[in-house]
UniProtKB/TrEMBL annotation:
InterPro entries: Aminotransferase_I/II_large, HisP_aminotrans, HistidinolP_aminotransfase, PyrdxlP-dep_Trfase, PyrdxlP-dep_Trfase_major, PyrdxlP-dep_Trfase_small. Belongs to the class-II pyridoxal-phosphate-dependent aminotransferase family. Histidinol-phosphate aminotransferase subfamily. One of its GO terms (molecular function) is histidinol-phosphate transaminase activity. The keyword Lipoprotein does not apply. It comes from Devosia ginsengisoli. It is an enzyme of class 2 (transferase). Its EC number is 2.6.1.9. This is Histidinol-phosphate aminotransferase.
């Protein structure tokens, strides 16, 4: 007989974590267009697909554990020392490893209020406390972040540009944030949308990583046509790379992903086309929607956040789009912005569809 009242118990805090809520998809078999997860509207680099297929010939063999092929390609294209790169099973893998390595019981991590919803999960999973800091008009506020630092602070999580708001901090602002931190606090710059930024005063964070001993930059292939392959990478000082390499899964990036990632990195033509398409339709959709009834927060990412007069209006907009086969992202439950929707930049047809439906909805309301 087993006594059900005695059973394995998760570590303190684990059951207080709200699970991550992914963007919705259409019903299986429906041809709904998904604009809820910031995926590529131009598919995958053909070169990456070809590389992925060649890996099918070697599935019986363990992948090389340090993702050398991928690190070499990244080092070449971005001008980085390959020894300063760690690859992961999505950048999610690396964010978890950073939390596990630098946070524990009694520690605090600081983030802006509408920052990426994975940060509270990984912070609490490591036994630490997440400190949420108010923003200024949906943008991270450097003074407020610095004011929230205590002697318990060990990590600052900063998505730049940020998801789900699309806003960014200039290089000068990120440097001001870094300059105000004690050297034992790790600044994690999550540049998941770096490939899409046009703003001239933006920096992806690589220079700061090179100059400081407490800054890491995290990147992903997910928003560039390879979300299914799960590939992320980070660049950091040697001592951080060494610590992460001690605890990461020994074969954390599979062979098809390593080969596809390396090919995608070198396919600069495809990446440029994606960036150009995104900038064009991001600007177009922003101009179409921005009005008295809908506010579009200026975005540097591959999505826009639209703010409606109230939560009810946003819910109606979500439903109306969904009925017409366009699935966007609700940001009430996971981000506390119930009057907003996040809309990924998709194909021309999808963008024209979204604009037409929302403008008609505003007119009749
Ligand atoms: C999408 C996203 C990621 C990427 O996650 P993956 O695990 O690489 O798919 C990381 N950070 C932010 C801010 C994101 O929006």
């Amino acid at each position: 007989m087993s006594d059900d009242s005695i059973r394995p118990v998760p570590q303190p805090g684990i059951l207080d974590i709200a699970p991550y809520l992914p963007g919705k998809s259409g019903a299986p078999g429906s041809n709904a267009i998904k604009l809820s997860a910031n995926e590529s509207p131009l598919g995958t680099s053909p070169k990456a697909m070809e590389a992925f297929r060649t890996a099918a010939e070697h599935l019986e063999i363990y992948p090389e554990g340090s993702s050398k092929i991928l690190r070499t390609a990244l080092a070449e294209v971005h001008g980085i020392d390959p020894d300063r790169i760690v690859c992961g099973n999505g950048s999610d893998d690396l964010l978890h490893l950073l939390a596990q390595t630098y946070l524990g019981e009694g520690d605090e991590a600081v983030m802006n209020r509408y920052g990426f919803s994975v940060y509270p999960i990984i912070t609490k999973a490591a036994g630490a406390k997440i400190v949420m800091v108010e923003e200024t008009d949906y943008t991270a506020d450097v003074d407020a972040l610095l004011a929230a630092v205590t002697e318990k602070t060990k990590v600052i999580w900063l998505a730049n540009p940020n998801n789900p708001t699309g806003t960014y901090l200039s290089d000068a602002e990120v440097r001001r944030l870094h300059a105000g931190l004690r050297p034992d606090i790790l600044l994690v710059i999550d540049s998941a949308y770096a490939e899409y930024v046009i703003a001239a005063d933006y920096s992806v964070g690589l220079e700061l990583v090179g100059e400081a001993s407490n800054v890491v930059m995290v990147r992903t292939f997910s928003k560039m046509g390879l979300a299914a392959a799960r590939i992320g990478w980070m660049v950091g000082p040697a001592h951080v790379v060494d610590a992460i390499n001690r605890i990461r899964g020994p074969f954390n990036v599979n062979l098809p992903a390593q080969l596809a990632g390396a090919a995608a990195t070198r396919d600069v033509e495809f990446n440029a086309r994606l960036k150009e398409h995104n900038a064009k339709w991001r600007d177009w959709l922003t101009a179409e929607l921005h009005s008295n009834s809908m506010r579009v927060v200026p975005s540097q990412a591959n999505f826009i956040m639209v703010l409606f007069p109230d939560a009810e209006f946003a819910a109606k907009a979500f439903e109306t789009l969904r009925e017409r086969g366009l699935i966007v992202r609700e940001i009430g439950p996971s981000y506390g912005i119930p009057e907003g929707l996040r809309i990924s930049i998709g194909s021309e047809e999808a963008m024209r569809g979204v604009a037409g439906i929302l403008k008609a909805l505003v007119k009749i309301s």
